[in-house]
Amino acid sequence: MTEHHWETRAVHPPVIGPDASRPLGVPIYQGHLFAFDDAAAMAEAFEGPDGAFIYGRMGNPTVRSLERAVADLEGGAGALAAASGMGAITTVLTALLRSGDHVIAQSSLYGGTHGLLHDLADRWGVAVTHVPGDDPDAVRAALRPETRVLYLETIANPSTHVADVSALAGAVRGTGVLTVVDNTFTPVLCRPLLQGADVSVHSVTKYLGGHADVVGGAAAFADPDVHRRVWRHGLDVGATAAPHSAWLVLRGMATLAMRIERQSRTTLDLARRLEAHPAVASVAYPGLPGHPQHVLATRALDGGYGAVLSFEPAGGRDAGRAFIESVRLASLATSLGDVSTLVMHPASTSHRRLDAAGLAAAGIGEATVRIAPGLEHPDDLWNDIEQALAKAAP
Ligand SMILES: *Cc1c(COP(=O)(O)O)cnc(C)c1O
């Protein structure tokens, strides 16, 4: 381009890519426009999620690296990355549903998802029936000709109720109903697509990212046609993942398997110590033999029982509040899946809009504390928990 003026050359800098070598780390492709030499190739690129890159909302090399990594993690045919977990869930559900359709959903759901389903019912005419997460007969009984989606979460928050994905997905097999599973709490440990689900969604803000520095979402698909359908609708929704966010999630995913294994082990250790503590009324963690779905969790999860527990300090709501204000090493913060330990009090924060009956139905007590252990040494965490329990004791 030396024949052009420098102003023109400033707009058309040479794009330098590696030639004889290749980058081992995934590069961040911040550029969002891709030019073609061939008009037919450009037209073809508009056809699906795996085509040549055109425009950032339709695909980006860094984002596609993340999509391939998530598809691989979940054993899916493909995946879609999104700007947030709710972006992924909204894109999937609004792609698969139209007014007049019916959804069967697990009764205890992430607050944002609960709100979305409520909104779809209230303003878009999508009927929703709630069922327990472990009863395939309840799913069969709820089926209607217009049912399109069965929606589950592998482990409910903060009750730690475990869904029987294979039995529930099995209950709708052959009916045309698609099973969508929120696998945010159990990446690596559970592969819903291999248990008969059609879509596995994630808030990658949690374990996949893992370092409290990125918000993102993803959905993996068993069937390429469902992937294409959701991708096409996603172009209109526009909850697109940004390249830098995708890069951060990819960096987190490199250590995901080690982190989730270690965090699950620490959580089991803390759950056992809490259970034996006199100032603790009850502990909910699927790894404890007394948990109502312990046997199911052992069958459905591979390599650990997840890294979230909840417990009830003796002494009611005041004890719960006093505990979360007394921890020193753990942080009082929402979210989970971070390298550092997070505690929260659902009744006064994430679930504050529920009345006593609603709290009970969600398996939450007035005193319930949720702990999402990080990568600190378990003994340091236990010392922190013990001193906070002493301060919270009635
Ligand atoms: C956090 C979370 C979401 C929402 O994800 P965002 O990235 O915050 O939008 C959805 N489902 C579950 C289970 C979550 O924990």
From TrEMBL:
Pfam families with a match to the protein in the record:
Cys_Met_Meta_PP (PF01053)
Ranges in coiled-coil conformation: none
Q: Zinc-finger: present as a keyword of the record? A: no
Q: Required co-factor? A: pyridoxal 5'-phosphate
Q: Does the keyword Flavoprotein apply?
A: no
Which keywords does UniProt give here? Pyridoxal phosphate
> What's this protein's family per the entry?
Belongs to the trans-sulfuration enzymes family.
Please report the name of this protein according to its UniProt entry.
Answer: Trans-sulfuration enzyme family protein
